[in-house]
Amino acid sequence: MNNVNADIGLIGLGVMGTSLALNMESHGFTVAVHNRTAPQIDSLINNRSKFNKIVGFEDLKEFVTAIKKPRKIMLMVVAGSVVDDYIKKLIPLIDQGDIIIDGGNSHYPDSIRRTKELEAQGFQFIGAGISGGEEGALKGPSIMPGGSVSAWPEVKGIFQAISAKVEGNDPCCDWIGEDGSGHFVKMVHNGIEYGDMQLICEAYQIMKDVLDMSNDEMHEVFKKWNDGELASYLIEITAEILKFKEKDGTYLVDNILDTAGEKGTGKWTAAVALELGSSLTLIGEAVFARYLSSLKDERVKASKQFKGPTVNFSVNKEQVINDLHDALYASKIVSYAQGYTLLANAAKQFNWNLNYGSIALMWRGGCIIRSAFLTKIKDAYDNDAEIKNLLLDPFFNNVINKSQSGWRRLVSIAISSGIPIPAMTSSLSYFDGYRSERLPANLLQAQRDYFGAHTYERLDAKKGEFFHTEWIQND
């Protein structure tokens, strides 16, 4: 058994770990696997392995010994203490220069800490964000690795081989940067995913509650949108969801309880934006919308006590659908602009060297937010690597300007109809704030100085010169 000489080791044979092992095997790699319980090992090797290149080990020491040096050991276990527990178990068994890879949904501060701790002991660490779910893991995910820079050449061949491929056979995997950057980028990816999903749900609610469209009609709209500028995995699956019927002929989506779950990455994204002083309003609203949806019993009671507006206006159905398209597209641009600003702020804070265009390319295939739109982000950074905000790119600037009228009409219709669209409205407010030469923050600073002597700067003085006023004057 110890003469296996595996290309990589993988610990944790849940859905994602099993799928990744099979993916690696299908690309010609020999994979040593270990799991806390034996049945999963037996099931994978005896029932799912096709090429006899997956070798299972119940004993952790035998598992480690079976891997080529420098060893590459990938953890696909529950994020948090379980990762740390396995690292502690592995350290006495591995050699200097060996690489431990965390492919779970770990929080980026943990990856920063683990990189420093393992490097201090002579080992290498990679925190790899992986997106695409079970299907992506099996057929080709988007992989976002960061950590010990010296480890990248050792894992590059495997990671890029098993990742999703897009036009020109380009892999949706490249080196992100130092310590926790890989998991940070994956976290922001998930936050953007929250935003995209919320925007689509808001479009759905307007179609359903304002335009009184049937599921089949909505299916056709989303299907059409997926052939154009909005083409994406989430638009595609929304079209499929809307037409799916149960055996009794009813639409499944109409029978699903309207409470949304979340696993924490959206919340992490919003929280770190507050810590770094980065305006991430759309993703924040998407997270809060999920929290509000969970208050089902309260909402049912409130619906009986509060009545919304009586709508007396008529709408042009075709115009509203066109406006929905524009509002969705413009809001999506704002969401990505905010997400990329957060990435830039994090890179500055943590001294990461991020390739923003490359990150967009990694998201073009395999992951949940994959879309045609992402190529335009790569183009924006190719045109100006130092661009401060994607809204300033000529392409996105042009789209926003063309979409503005429909975006505003759509938001007005939703508010007048009592339909909540927090993501679309917050994105419009952000845009209006960003394009404003002057905001009312002068009054805010005066208030802060009045009650807390926090000082303020003046228009007629040098930047960085601060003033305080004794606002209460005694006559």
Question: What would your notes on this structure say?
Answer:
- It is a single chain.
- The protein has helices at residues 15-26, 38-48, 60-65, 81-90, 108-120, 133-139, 152-162, 181-209, 215-225, 233-243, 265-275, 281-293, 296-305, 317-350, 356-362, 374-383, 394-417, 422-434, 441-452, and strands spanning 8-11, 31-34, 54-57, 72-75, 99-102, 124-131, 142-147, 165-166, 170-171, 177-178.
- It is an alpha/beta fold.
- The strands form 2 sheets. Strands 3-2-1-4-5-6-7-10 form an 8-stranded mixed sheet, sandwiched between helices.
- The model has no long low-confidence stretch (mean pLDDT 95).
* Secondary-structure element order, N to C: EHEHEHEHEHEHEHEEEHHHHHHHHHHHH
Mean pLDDT value: 95
Count of β-strands: 10
Rough outline: globular
**What is the helical fraction, as a range of percent?**
40-55%
Query: Which sheet architecture does the biggest sheet show?
Result: 8 strands, mixed
Count of separate DSSP helical elements: 19
Give the neighbour order of strands across the main sheet: 3-2-1-4-5-6-7-10
Strand percentage lies at 5-15%
C-alpha end-to-end distance: 93 Å
Mind sketching the topology for me?
Blueprint: E1 8-11, H1 15-26, E2 31-34, H2 38-48, E3 54-57, H3 60-65, E4 72-75, H4 81-90, E5 99-102, H5 108-120, E6 124-131, H6 133-139, E7 142-147, H7 152-162, E8 165-166, E9 170-171, E10 177-178, H8 181-209, H9 215-225, H10 233-243, H11 265-275, H12 281-293, H13 296-305, H14 317-350, H15 356-362, H16 374-383, H17 394-417, H18 422-434, H19 441-452
